[in-house]
Amino acid sequence: MARRMMSRLGQWSSYVFAVDFDTNSDPIYFALASKQSERPQVFRNVLADEMCYSLHVQSDDKIERAKFYGGLKKKLSKELPPECTILEMSIFQPNVKDSVIKGYFLKDASKSSATERVLGELLRNDPVYVCSYLCGGEDRQWSQHLWSNTEDGWVEVLEKYCVVPAEKPVHHPSTLNIINYDVFYSFEDAYKVLQQCVDIIPESKAVLELVDQRLKSKEKTDFPVIVIEGLDATGKTTLTESLTEALGATLLKSPPQCLSPWRARFDTEPPLIRRAFYALGNYLTAGQIGQEARQAPVIVDRYWHSTAAYAIATAVGGKLGNLPQAGSEVYGWPGDLLRPSLVLMLSLSSQERMRRLQVRGQDKTMEEEELEANHLFRQKVEEAYQRIEGPACVTVDASPSPDQVLQQVLLLIREKCHL
Ligand SMILES: Nc1ncnc2c1ncn2[C@@H]1O[C@H](COP(=O)(O)OP(=O)(O)OP(=O)(O)O)[C@@H](O)[C@H]1O
Ligand SMILES: Nc1ccn([C@H]2C[C@H](O)[C@@H](COP(=O)(O)O)O2)c(=O)n1
C-alpha cells in the first residue's frame, strides 16, 4: 500500500485541483500531499458540514473523454439526490498546455447513502476516478480518499492524501486546453476529430464527404471579401442583405447552407466535436468565397471570428479577466484558411439587442438563451472578437437605423477596400 501511495502521489504531485464554487470568483485551488499543511484549510469558507466527492474521467482518448464528460453531468443530475450540488472541477499542471483533466466536485447535503451508491456504480461501470473528501481531527484538516474497485465488485478506499492549499496559477486552467479542443488552427486538426467520430456519430461521414469535395481557395482573391460579425440580433442579416445589393456582391454564410442538415445534430455534441464541425464549415465557405470572389465582391455572414470567439468564451470559465491575454496564440488566424479583406463587428448595447430579440420574437438557440441569461458570457464573446487577429475586426456601432448603419459600413469599405 505504501508503495502504491508513493506512486500515485508521484503521478499527481505536479497537479493542482481547481473547484469552481462561484463563477464570479476565482476557483479554490488545492494540491495533494503526504503531510498536512500548517496553512489555513482550503475549504473552510465554502463548505458547511457536507460530504464532498470528486469525479474525473480516466481515459487517454480525447473523444471518449469529451463524450463521457458531457454525458456524466446529465447522468449525475438525474441520479443524484437533489440536495447534491454539482460543481465544475479541473485537475491540471499549472501553466502547462494540454494538461487539463476535467471533472466534477460534488457537495452533498442529502445525508443519505444514495450518493455513494450512484458513485459506486459509476466506478464499477465507467472510466472514472472517484474520491471522497473528509474533514477531521482537532485542526479540521481535509483529506482526499481515492476509491477503488475490489475484485469481487465492492468499492474500497484505496489511498488517502492530505489536501493542501495551492497557489493561484498565472493562467486560468480553462485556458490551457483551448488549442485543438475548442479552437482548431488547421483544416487537418478539425478533420481528424470528425474522422475519429465516424463510428459514434454516423452523420460525420456525410460531413466529411462534403468537405472532401470542397473547392480549394487561393490565398488572394480578385475582389474584396467582407465579413460581417457580431452577437445574435445585432443586425448581421439586415446589413449583409442590403450591402450585397448596394455593392452588387455575392452573399455567403458560414456554416454554409449545405451543412444545414447536420448543424442541429452537431450542436448537441460536446465542444471538441461541435467546434470541429464549425471549423470545417469555415473551410467549405472559404472554397465558395474563392470561387465567387473571381466575379464580384463577396459579403460573408459570420466566419472564423465567430467560430473562435464563441468557442473561447464558452471554454473560459468565470470572469472576463480569465480570458487569455490579447496577443495570445489562441487569437491567431489559421494559417491555411482564406483571409478576408475586411472584418466588421456590429456592436450594440445589451438593452437594444434584447429589444431587437423581443421584436423579432423567433425561437432562440440555446446559446442565444445563454447570452440573455449570462451578461458575462456576452462580454467574453465580444472581448474575444476584438482580440482575434490576422485580420482583426473593426467595430461598427450598430445602434443607428438600418440605412445609417449601411452608409457607415459602405464608407468603411470604400476607405479600406477601395471599392
Ligand atoms: N439598424 C437597425 N435598427 C433597428 N432594428 C434593426 C436594425 N438592424 C436590424 N434590426 C432588427 O433587429 C432584428 C435582428 O436583426 P437581424 O436578424 O438582421 O440580426 P442578426 O445579427 O442577423 O441576428 P442572428 O445572428 O440572430 O440571425 C430584426 O428584427 C431586424 O429587423
Ligand atoms: N462561422 C460560425 C458561425 C456560427 N458559429 C456558432 C457560434 C454560435 O454558437 C452559433 C451562432 O450562430 P447563429 O445562431 O447566429 O446562426 O453558431 C460558429 O461557431 N462559427
Low-pLDDT ranges: 1-7
> What is the spatial order of strands in the main beta sheet?
1-2-8-7-6-3-5-4
Instruction: Tally the structural domains.
Output: 2
Helix percentage range: 25-40%
**Structural class by helix and strand composition:** alpha/beta
How would you describe the shape? Answer: elongated
Describe the oligomeric state of these chains in a short phrase: single chain
Distinct ligands, ions and cofactors found in the model = adenosine-5'-triphosphate, ligand LCLUPRNS
Named CATH topology of the largest domain: Rossmann fold
Total number of helical segments? Answer: 13
* Name of the CATH homologous superfamily of the largest domain: P-loop containing nucleotide triphosphate hydrolases
Number of strands: 13
CATH class of the largest domain: Alpha Beta
Keywords: ATP-binding, Coiled coil, Kinase, Mitochondrion, Nucleotide-binding, Pyrimidine biosynthesis, Transferase, Transit peptide
GO molecular function, one term: ATP binding
Catalytic activity: dCMP + ATP = dCDP + ADP; CMP + ATP = CDP + ADP
Domain Thymidylate kinase-like: 228-408
Written account of the structure:
The chain has 419 residues and is α/β, with parallel strands linked by helices. It has 2 domains: 2-175, no CATH class; 187-417, P-loop containing nucleotide triphosphate hydrolases (Rossmann fold, 3-Layer(aba) Sandwich). Helices cover 39% and strands 21% of the residues. The chain is built from 13 helices and 13 strands. The strands form 2 sheets. An 8-stranded antiparallel barrel has the order 1-2-8-7-6-3-5-4. The chain has a 5-stranded parallel sheet with strand order 10-11-9-12-13, with helices on both faces. Strand 6 (128-136) and strand 7 form a beta hairpin. Helix 4 packs across helix 8 and helix 11 (366-373) crosses helix 12. The longest helix has 22 residues, at 271-292. The radius of gyration is 24 Å and the shape is elongated. Residues 1-7 have low confidence and may be disordered. Bound molecules: adenosine-5'-triphosphate (ATP) and the ligand Nc1ccn([C@H]2C[C@H](O)[C@@H](COP(=O)(O)O)O2)c(=O)n1. Adenosine-5'-triphosphate binds at residues 230, 232-238, 356, 359-360, 401-402, 405.
